[in-house]
Each structure stands twice: as structure tokens, then as C-alpha cells.
Amino acid sequence: MLQKPFPAASVLRRCQSTLVVAEHNNESLTPITLNTITAAQRLGGEVSCLVAGTSCDKVASELSKVQGVAKVLVAQHDVYKGFLAEELTPLIVETHKKFNYTHICAGASAFGKNLIPRVAGKLDVAPVSDIIEIKSPDTFVRTIYAVL
């Protein structure tokens, strides 16, 4: 039996937007950022990327050419030199407040695993980590670990 989609689902899809926090070295993107952008596209809605660093124009230019990225936001300041989560968290929270993103993503690297829980704590939401597949905007597949 086929069911018509709930009308609110299509409205929600149009209102969704995702912020991807770019991981880079001020010269080039890390491959995990491109993977994260692909995952963000599966969430639906517009995908924006945030590039924070000291001299990251080259990275921003590279991101602007990635298919599916609607907007590239750039924050350049000496405080972002070490890409520390303690310095990036307030920037991401303020960016979220300004643009009201429904999802904020970062790669499952040491960078992302340090950053996302801090941002989630400041926004009073639960982070979802180590996702290996996105089924829908609210359904994720994660690995299962078992001890024998």
C-alpha cells in the first residue's frame, strides 16, 4: 500500500539547512570534509560550509567549486590558528543563531569528535556521532560493536 507523504514533511524538507564545518590546513580541504558534504546532501535542503582559519581563501575557493554547496562562510582570524574546538565553538553557535541551521556536521575525525559535542552542549541538543549512513533527516545508521 502506498501512502501520500504527510504535507508537513515537504514543508520541513524545504526549510532544512545544514552547516558543514570544513576541516583543512589553510591550504586544502581534508578528504573527510568532502565526505561530510556528501552526507549533508542526503539530509536534504541547502548545504553551507564554514571555513575558519588564518589565511583560508584558497580553501574557501576550493569549497565554492564543490557541487551541492550553496554557500561558503569564511571566518579568518588569528584566534582560529590552531583550529581549537574551544575557539571554534562560539563561532559555530553564533553562525547557527544567525542562519538557524537544522543540522551541523563535521567529519568523524579527531577534529570533528572534539568539536561537535561542544557545539551540541552549547545548543542543548544531543550529538549523533560515527554515522555510516543517512536514511532520512532523522534516521541514521551507526556501527554496532559487540564483545564476544
TrEMBL record:
Question: Organism source for this protein?
Answer: Chloebia gouldiae
Q: How does it assemble?
A: Heterodimer composed of ETFA and ETFB. Identified in a complex that contains ETFA, ETFB and ETFRF1. Interaction with ETFRF1 promotes dissociation of the bound FAD and loss of electron transfer activity. Interacts with TASOR.
User: Organism's domain of life?
Assistant: Eukaryota
InterPro entries the UniProt entry points to: ETF_a/b_N, ETF_a/FixB, ETF_alpha_N, Rossmann-like_a/b/a_fold
> What Pfam families does the database record attribute to this sequence?
ETF
Any one annotated GO CC term = mitochondrial matrix
Similarity section: Belongs to the ETF alpha-subunit/FixB family.
Q: What is the lineage of its organism?
A: Eukaryota, Metazoa, Chordata, Craniata, Vertebrata
Q: Which residues form the signal peptide?
A: none
Which SUPFAM superfamilies does this chain map to? Adenine nucleotide alpha hydrolases-like
Q: Which CDD domains does this one have?
A: ETF_alpha (cd01715)
Record GO biological process: fatty acid beta-oxidation using acyl-CoA dehydrogenase
UniProt function note = Heterodimeric electron transfer flavoprotein that accepts electrons from several mitochondrial dehydrogenases, including acyl-CoA dehydrogenases, glutaryl-CoA and sarcosine dehydrogenase. It transfers the electrons to the main mitochondrial respiratory chain via ETF-ubiquinone oxidoreductase (ETF dehydrogenase). Required for normal mitochondrial fatty acid oxidation and normal amino acid metabolism.
The name this protein carries in UniProt is Electron transfer flavoprotein subunit alpha, mitochondrial
Record domain Electron transfer flavoprotein alpha/beta-subunit N-terminal: where: 18-147
An annotated Gene Ontology molecular function? electron transfer activity
> Where can this protein be found?
Mitochondrion matrix
Q: What is its main location?
A: mitochondrion
